[in-house]
UniProtKB/TrEMBL annotation:
UniProtKB keywords: Hydrolase, Magnesium
PANTHER family hit by this protein: 5-AMINO-6-(5-PHOSPHO-D-RIBITYLAMINO)URACIL PHOSPHATASE YIGB, N-ACYLNEURAMINATE-9-PHOSPHATASE
NCBIfam families documented for this protein: HAD-SF-IA-v1, HAD-SF-IA-v3
Necessary cofactors: Mg(2+)
Molecular-function GO terms, alphabetical: hydrolase activity
GO process annotations (BP): small molecule metabolic process
Name of the protein in question: HAD family hydrolase
Keyword Cell wall biogenesis/degradation on entry: no
Keyword match Magnesium: yes
Length: 256
């Protein structure tokens, strides 16, 4: 069956999250009065990334709300038991510097144009909060390129759960095998999409070593490689749920 739509991950796929996070936290620390050596700066970036991954993972697993994971990131980074309002204020100041660094990758707009010109529909599936991602996409100027924005905080489940991918397909009224999913993570994006019956495509910008079982999904180094893969239907299609199979997604999905 031909691919009729592309679902996209957002952070570090369309949007350079890692670059903005790195520059944003250093700008914020400088504004807070920190004087950092090169070694100090590298350590600060590493620690901020570590606490982000730890507590964002807890949000994805349903252990924290979106606001709570932000507060825990601040507390973990500073090593201080701040009150909620203090952690919120620190994060808000960081957020200003983070947002000032927001950029899409240089290959994103040409890829979106090419997919649209090929007659394929486009949507988004993200392990995040819908309001946060909607704000981000509008600020980046690309929100209107996508029919739907499906986020884990609305679903009650998250990638790599197959139910999240099926929910996004249902939001577009398409079967999983009519949809390709593009993301920067092998495990939670490409492999999980393939297991859910979509065409999984791993956007490996860093040239990482192939993951075990990488044959279940296609791998591209940049988005210039995407359209030929879709048009030629060269993406590997793993075994997955049969078209029309009943899937419990835990509630309706509405476009944003």
């Amino acid at each position: 069956m031909p691919i009729r739509a592309v679902l996209w991950d957002i952070d570090d796929t369309l949007f350079d999250y890692s670059g903005a996070e790195r520059a944003g936290v250093l700008r914020h620390l400088a504004a807070e009065g920190a004087v950092l050596t090169r070694s100090d700066a590298a350590d600060a970036v590493r620690r901020w990334n570590e606490v982000m991954r730890l507590h964002y993972g807890r949000f994805v697993r349903g252990e924290l709300t979106f606001g709570e994971q932000r507060r825990e990131r601040v507390r973990g980074f500073l090593g201080e038991l701040l009150a909620d309002h203090e952690a919120d204020a620190w994060f808000a100041r960081y957020r200003e510097h983070f947002e000032a660094e927001w950029r899409v990758f240089s290959d994103v707009l040409p890829a979106l144009d090419a997919v649209e010109a090929a007659g394929m529909r486009q949507g988004l599936l993200s392990n995040s909060a819908a309001a946060t991602q909607d704000h981000k996409l509008r600020r980046l100027g690309i929100r209107d390129r996508f029919e739907v924005l499906v986020c884990s905080d609305d679903l009650g489940c998250a990638k790599p759960d197959a139910a999240a991918f099926h929910a996004a397909c249902m939001a577009m009224n398409l079967e999983p095998d009519e949809v390709a999913y593009v993301g920067d993570r092998w495990d939670t994006d490409a492999a999980a999409a393939a297991e859910a019956g979509l065409v999984g495509i791993w956007l490996d910008r860093s040239g990482a070593s192939p993951e075990p079982g990488a044959a279940t999904a296609s791998r591209i180094a940049g988005l210039a490689e995407l359209l030929p893969l879709l048009v030629e239907d060269g993406a590997r299609r793993p075994a997955g749920p049969a078209p029309g199979a009943s899937v419990d997604i835990g509630g309706a999905v509405l476009p944003h």
